């Protein structure tokens, strides 16, 4: 087992704000490259309305293609019961269910209040038997419309969901990228202390203000060992104005390797995949490691 797990969310969170449609074959080629480099957990896409997020219109094909890759563990994001049923019918066995703490963001994202989302999730529970779950707690730290989110509000939502599925993994999401390391450390520690029966915790950050890696380290210091990252630093929530890309997977992999912590990722194999993703038309790549490694002599490339 690696010391930390990086979940590759580029094919979903990284691709979803890109305007020009990325050919399905290109998406699958990048996913295949990620898996070959050691990124076995892949957030391959989302089952959402094609009118709301056109880039995710090929979710069924992407799921089928990723399931065919040896060693791949594709997880598919779903915002409600209708799309969860679509994903399960298409063969998904690992879902990412997203609910926002912020009512304004949840309504803007899926046209439901958080309470209505919880009720819908509760009603669907019998159909989720045997399905692995990541519960993404969006706007856990900050809302693009109302600002900083009170920690007690995040804890209340996690508590409702953890009572229903304590076996799920819970992802604390810095949707806007406005969280800071102290905020991340405090909330992560409070969640882990308040809900000891929860099977696992993850952190999903954005690098909007350049604090992505610092926030990952704060979450790590609080005991979290699963982190979302996007190849080439692509991404940004379409429903969070101003939120830019995720932490670049290659940056997080390099940082942990430099610290002597294993991720199971071959950075040499990942780098050309990241460079390919950075060239996608319409994307806004981020991160530093690609350029830093390209500028170094070959014998110093690591």
TrEMBL record:
Gene Ontology BP term (one): ketone body biosynthetic process
PROSITE patterns, per database record: PYR_CT
InterPro entries given in the database record: Aldolase_TIM (IPR013785), HMGL (IPR043594), PYR_CT (IPR000891)
Gene3D superfamilies noted in UniProt: Aldolase class I
GO molecular function: hydroxymethylglutaryl-CoA lyase activity; metal ion binding
Keywords: Lyase, Metal-binding
Pfam families reported in the protein's UniProt record: HMGL-like (PF00682)
Domain called Pyruvate carboxyltransferase: residue spans: 4-271
SUPFAM superfamilies named in the record: Aldolase
Family to which the UniProt record says this protein belongs: Belongs to the HMG-CoA lyase family.
PANTHER family the UniProt entry points to: HYDROXYMETHYLGLUTARYL-COA LYASE
Protein's UniProt name: Hydroxymethylglutaryl-CoA lyase
């Amino acid at each position: 087992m690696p010391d930390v797990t990086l979940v590759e969310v580029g094919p979903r969170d990284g691709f979803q704000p890109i305007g020009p449609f990325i050919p399905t074959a290109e998406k699958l080629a990048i996913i295949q490259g990620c898996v070959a480099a050691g990124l076995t957990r892949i957030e391959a896409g989302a089952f959402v309305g094609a009118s709301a997020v056109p880039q995710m219109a090929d979710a069924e094909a992407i799921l089928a293609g990723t399931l065919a890759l040896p060693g791949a563990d594709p997880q598919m994001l779903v915002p409600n019961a209708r799309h969860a049923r679509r994903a399960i019918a298409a063969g998904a066995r690992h879902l990412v269910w997203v609910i926002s703490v912020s009512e304004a963001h949840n309504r803007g994202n899926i046209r439901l209040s958080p309470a209505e989302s919880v009720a819908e999730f509760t009603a669907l529970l019998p159909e989720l038997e045997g399905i692995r779950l990541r519960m993404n707690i969006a706007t856990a730290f900050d809302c693009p419309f109302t600002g900083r989110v009170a920690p007690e509000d995040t804890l209340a939502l996690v508590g409702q969901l953890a009572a229903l599925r304590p076996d799920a993994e819970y992802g604390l999401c810095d949707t806007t990228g406005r969280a800071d390391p102290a905020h991340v450390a405090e909330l992560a520690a409070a969640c882990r202390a308040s809900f000891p029966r929860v099977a696992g915790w993850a952190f999903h950050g954005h690098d909007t203000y350049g604090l992505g890696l610092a926030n990952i380290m704060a979450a790590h210091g609080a005991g979290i060992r699963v982190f979302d990252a996007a190849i080439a630093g692509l991404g940004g929530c379409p429903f969070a104005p101003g939120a830019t890309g995720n932490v670049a997977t290659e940056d997080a992999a390099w940082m942990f390797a430099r610290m002597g912590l294993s991720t199971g990722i071959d950075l040499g194999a990942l780098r050309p995949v990241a460079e390919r993703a950075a060239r996608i038309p319409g994307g806004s790549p981020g991160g530093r490691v690609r350029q830093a490694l390209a500028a170094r002599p070959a014998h110093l490339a690591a």
